From TrEMBL:
Native source organism of the sequence: Dyella japonica
Biological classification of the source: Bacteria, Pseudomonadati, Pseudomonadota, Gammaproteobacteria, Lysobacterales
UniProt binding sites for NADP(+): R46, K139
Record's protein name: Glucose-6-phosphate 1-dehydrogenase
NCBIfam families named in the record: zwf (TIGR00871)
Keyword NADP belongs to the record: yes
Length: 480
């Protein structure tokens, strides 16, 4: 179904996110016939390009996808060189946008957050925030609770909450949405989805990439702010929330908020037991020798973590006592994002030792590199021999089952903004609750004065991260 005609303006239009993710996502939706030809997509940045120059850049990126519609798509695309802090060009831009309050206008702020207020001020001055206008805020929303509130207040002076779409692209990933279908579309799981039947949950988001060109941003963020405060906590919310009464935006977001508010605080008193920080050193990534973080940064003093593991807990009736082991890092051995739900062992074994060990059931939801759901079950090893047990997965690979490439998260989310559907976007109170949990961890680390533990690029982080889970008699899932 095509969406209504819209204008989408990307501030930070020459940036990595715009060129690598946003514009290709829009192209794919266009090529699928979902974007009407009279829509407009306008890149904005300070660079002195014109429409043609911008299209040339984009053509180079999109050529790889070339299915003949690239030139048609490029007709929708334009560019304006603007500086949020200078007047030049804004009158022309406002004229280009026009005054039609019935037209959907999406302003995507893919810039550093310190420009948000200047951009919103300008949009307000030209009344571009009126009517069917929406603003999309890219993470990070702030650096801590205080700065997040400041950003939300600043933007909130021009765009009310219903116009504000805080994007977390993990919510647009197919597997994450599949969690909704799996949990609430099957009678099988929900009765077991609680502390009585679930032993623990693991979330791993591993990347092989280092920080590369993004060191300037990353060194001020670190893995907890970059990945855990937003993406991983959002996954935890989808996993742990109570069944919402419907998929209405606030029905879902109310339930997610309760999860965030139930996270057990991690403070100075217990941060050393419940968290592990790491920083990569030289090593290898995908067969290539790679430098360490400090060398990339050209600063040998940074205490920024490029790896973090956390043992989190949700203090409510459903989840009391169930650990959620979370870990993420750069320069790990493989790119894999996975949620593992480990069920409790059977209460009593009727099998002889010769049958082999009984393993716990596991549900493994893989987000990346390929989407896949596996339910590990115990069965009898086939054949006439004695009764020997085997642990095998019921496996559903989406690519194999449906024979299609899954759309990128941004494809779904960008069109949800155009449709005005905020279900998969973070509400202000969710962002605040997530910071309320993250801030004391960051403070505890800062107060401890300890440096993150070094790990060699191409390994699974510091050995303390393994100890974090093994202390509890459990191991990180490895056999998906
Ligand atoms: C971004 C982070 O939000 O997510 C990056 O800023 C990270 O550091 C990226 O690499 C991971 O996204 P994905 O979709 O590749 O898992």
């Amino acid at each position: 179904q095509p969406v209504e005609t819209f204008d989408l303006v990307i501030f930070g239009g020459t940036g990595d996110l715009a060129l690598r993710k946003l514009l290709p996502a829009l192209y794919h939706r266009y090529a699928d016939g979902q974007i009407p030809d009279d829509s407009r997509i306008i890149g904005i940045a300070r660079e002195g390009l014109d429409d043609e120059g911008y299209r040339d850049n984009l053509r180079a990126v999109l050529k790889k996808n070339g299915n003949g519609k690239v030139e048609d798509f490029l007709k929708l695309v334009g560019y304006r060189s603007l500086d949020a802090r200078k007047d030049d060009g804004w009158d022309d831009f406002a004229t280009l946008m026009g005054k039609d309050a019935e037209r959907i206008r999406v302003f995507y702020l893919s810039t550093s957050p310190d420009l948000f207020v200047d951009i919103c001020n300008r949009l307000g001055k030209y009344e571009l925030n009126k009517g069917k206008s929406r603003v999309v805020l890219e993470k990070p929303i702030g650096h801590d609770l205080k700065s997040a509130n400041q950003i939300n207040d600043d933007v909130g002076r021009f765009f009310d909450e219903s116009q504000t779409f805080r994007i977390d692209h993990y919510l647009g990933k197919e597997t994450v949405q599949n969690l909704l279908a799996l949990r609430f579309g099957n009678a099988l799981f929900e009765p077991l989805w609680n502390a009585e039947h679930i032993d623990h949950v693991q979330v791993t988001v591993a990347e092989t990439l280092g920080v590369g060109q993004r060191a300037g941003y990353y060194d001020h963020a670190g893995a907890l702010r970059d990945m855990v405060q937003n993406h991983i906590l959002q996954l935890v919310c989808m996993l742990a929330m109570e069944p919402p009464s419907s998929l209405a935006p606030d029905a879902v977001r109310d339930e997610k908020l309760k999860v965030l508010r139930s996270l057990k605080p991690i403070t100075e008193a217990n941060a050393a037991q419940l968290t592990v920080r790491g920083q990569y050193r030289a090593g290898s990534a995908e067969g290539q020798a790679v430098p360490g973080y400090l060398d990339e940064l050209k600063d040998h003093k940074s205490n920024t973590e490029t790896f973090v593991a956390v043992k989190a807990e949700i203090a409510n009736w459903r989840w009391a006592g169930v650990p959620f082991y979370l870990r993420t890092g750069k320069r790990l051995p493989e790119r894999v994002s996975e949620i593992t739900v480990v069920f409790k062992a059977v209460p009593h074994s009727i099998f002889d030792a010769s049958a082999g060990p009984l393993a716990q059931n596991r549900l493994v939801l893989r987000l990346q590199p390929d989407e896949d759901i596996k339910l590990w079950l115990t069965i009898k090893h086939p054949g006439p021999g004695g009764l020997r047990l085997r642990h095998v997965p019921l496996d559903m690979s989406f690519a194999e089952a449906f024979g299609v490439q899954q759309p990128d998260a941004y494809e779904r989310l960008l069109l949800d903004v155009v449709r005005g559907n905020p279900t998969l976007f973070m509400r202000r109170d969710e962002v605040e609750a997530a910071w309320r949990w993250a801030d004391p961890i960051l403070a505890a680390w800062a107060d401890s004065g300890e440096a993150p533990r070094p790990y060699t690029s191409g390994t699974w982080g510091p050995s303390a991260a393994v100890a974090l889970i093994e202390r509890d008699g459990r191991t990180w899932n490895e056999d998906s």
